Structures are given as structure tokens and as C-alpha cells.
Amino acid sequence: MTLKERVEADIKQAMLAKDKPRLQALRSIKSLILLAETEKGAGEGLTKDAELKLLTRAAKQRRESAEVYAQQQRADLEQIELGELAVIEEYLPKQLDEGDLRAHLLDIIRRVGATGPSDLGKVMGVASKELAGQADGRAISSAVSDLLNNTDF
């Protein structure tokens, strides 16, 4: 079942349950999918990789919006964003915790043969592809930088 089909089925369930916040979040996901499918150069449908990027970008936007609303002390709007984020995260792969992330990155560092901070780009290229959707880009970058600056790995 494609992401679009899953979202459409979940929209029907949310409508039957009269769950307006969930319905709004699902409709925004469907809208993103439809926009991506109709972009110039898009093929028949979205690939799994394109779906993952789409959802990751949507989750990042909701997270950043929630932070802004929290800074502005707008708890009502922050809760809406966090609610939509929770729905989007249901479709994303499980996020790695810090320990698992570091373990994966250490493995990548060893495979790539990185020896120090000058190999950051090499490690980030592999890590970004392998850990896509499982960890935030900033978290990956921060952990890689920390591990490469710490020479006893």
C-alpha cells in the first residue's frame, strides 16, 4: 500500500470518527503528496525515498513552527502543530535514540575510514543516506562532528 493509499484510508477513518485535528493533519499530508505528484518532471507516483523526504520535511516544518509558537507563548497554536507532527510521525520510520545513532555513526566512520574532522563530508554523505528518516539531519551532523573531534573512537 502506497503512502497516498494509507493516508486516504486514514482520512476516511478520521471522518467517521469525527476527529477534526487528525483529519486536518491527514489532509495536509495528502495535499503535499498531490503537489509532489503534479510537479513538473514527476513520474507516475512517488518513490519510497520521495515519500520519506516529503514527510521528513513536513515534520521538520511542524517542529520549527511549534518552537516559534512556544517562544511567542502561543500554546494554542503550538498544540495544533504538535498534534499534526504526531500524525506525520506515524508514517515515518522509528527515530533512533542518541545511543543507537552514535552506534550507527561509529560503524559508518569505521567503514568509510574516517580519521578526523577533515572527513566530516565523507561520513555525512553516507550517514545522511543510510539514516534518512531515522534521525534529524542536525542530530546526525552534531553527533558526527563530536565523534570525529573525539579521536578515541
Structure description:
- The protein is mostly helical.
- The protein contains 7 helices and no strands.
- This is GatB/YqeY domain-containing protein.
- InterPro entries: Asn/Gln_tRNA_amidoTrase-B-like, GatB_Yqey_C_2, YqeY/Aim41, YqeY/Aim41_N.
- It comes from Pontibacter ruber.
- Fraction of helical residues: over 70%
N-to-C terminal Cα separation, in Å? Answer: 42 Å
Class based on secondary structure composition and strand pairing: mainly alpha
Largest sheet: none
Gyration radius, in Å: 18 Å
The total count of helices amounts to: 7
Low-pLDDT residue spans: none
Assembly of the depicted chains: single chain
- Percent strand equals under 5%
InterPro entries: Asn/Gln_tRNA_amidoTrase-B-like (IPR003789), GatB_Yqey_C_2 (IPR023168), YqeY/Aim41 (IPR019004), YqeY/Aim41_N (IPR042184)
Protein name: GatB/YqeY domain-containing protein
Put the structure in a nutshell.
The chain is mostly helical. Helix content is 73%, strand content 0%.
Features:
single chain, 153 residues, mainly alpha, 7 helices, 73% helix, globular
Layout: helices, strands, pairs:
Elements (H helix, E strand, L loop, with lengths): L2 H15 L2 H19 L9 H24 L3 H15 L8 H15 L7 H11 L6 H13 L4
Helix pairs in contact: 1-2, 2-3, 2-4, 3-4, 5-6, 5-7, 6-7
